[in-house]
Amino acid sequence: MGKLTAIVMGATGLVGKALVNQLCQDDRYHKITCLVRAPLTANNYHDPMLKIEPLVIDFTILQDYQGYFTVDHVYCCIGTTMKKAGSKSAFRKVDFEYVHVCAQLARAQRAKSFVWISSIGANAKSNNFYLRVKGELENAILTMPQLPNAAAVRPPLLMGNRSDHRPGEAWGIKILEGISPIMKGPLAKYRPVYAEQVANEMINLQLF
Question: Which Pfam families match (predicted)?
Answer without folding.
Answer: NAD_binding_10
